[in-house]
Sequence to fold (306 residues):
Amino acid sequence: MKIIDRFDGVVTKEGPIILAVGCFDGIHKGHQKLIRHSVNQAQNEGGQAWVLTFDPHPAKILTPKQVPPLLMSIEYKLKQLDTLGIHGCLIIPFNRQIAKLEPETFIEKLYKAIPRLKQVMVGPDWTFGHQARGTPARLKGLGEQHGFEVSIIETESWKGSPISSTRIRQAVRKGLMADATAMLSGPFSIQGEVVEGQKRGRTLGFPTANIENQNELQPSPGIYAAFSVIDGIRYNGAAYIPMDSPNNIVEIYFFDASHDLYKQKIEIFFVEFIRKDQHFPTQETLVEHIRKDVESAKKILYFEPE
Fold:
C-alpha cells in the first residue's frame, strides 16, 4: 500500500481511482463496509481503491479540550487498512489552515491531487470544509462539477443503532468487550513495547509481560481474559490493568508462553472482563484471587464459541 502525506502531489498516474474518505478511527464494521465497497468498485472499474484520512484527528485541532481518546494510532490504522485490499492512502496533515478551507477549495485541492478520481465514497454523516459546511449533498454537487461520482454508503447497525467509534469507546470503558468485538468484527486491542516492570508477578508465581500502551484509549482497571499473537502463534492469558497504572502499563500473564519479550512490540486482544481491580489484605489472599482469575480466563478463552 502506497502512503502519501501531502495534498499537492499526484497520487498515481494509474486509474481510475475510487476514494473512500473518513477519519476511520477503529476501522469498525461501518468503516469496513465503506472501504469494501470502494475496493469492489475499483475491481469492477479496473482501477485502484484509495483511502483519504487525516492526521491528527480533526477534533484534536478543532475541539482539543473535548476530543476523546482514539481507538487506534495512525500507525496501526495504516496497518489495518493494508489488510483490506487498499492500494494507497492519502493522509492529510490536518491543521488550522486545512480547517479553514471552504468545501469548494478542499475539493479543488483533492481533484488536483488525484486527477484520475472516478468516485468518492463517504458515510452519511461525513462533513468537510470550513465549519463543516460541506455535506454529502454538497459533495455530490461538487462531484458533478469536477466529473467524479459520489456514493453515500449507509453505516452498519448493531442492536438497533448505528455503529460508531463513540459507541465502541463507551463499551471498552465499561468493560463490555463482547459489545466492542461485535462492532469492530474483532476484539479491541492495544499495542505497545514490553518494558521492564517491578517483577512482582514473578514473585507471586505469575510472571507478567509489562506493555507500555501506545493507544490513547485504555480499558478500565481490572482483570481481563486476553491473548496475543506472537510469531504467528496465539498465546492466551490474563491481562491486568492496575488502578494506578503508570505510563498506561498493561500486564499480561501468558498461560503457555515463556518468550523473552523484553523490548518487543506486541498486541493484546481483550476478550472479556473478569473483575474490577481491588486491594487485598494479604499476599495469600491476592495469590488466591489471581489463581481464580487465571481459571476464569482459561474457561473463557479455551471454550470460546467458534
Q: What stands out?
A: The CA atoms of residues 59 and 67 lie 6 Å apart. The first strand starts at residue 2 and ends at 4. The chain has two domains: 2-158, 187-302.
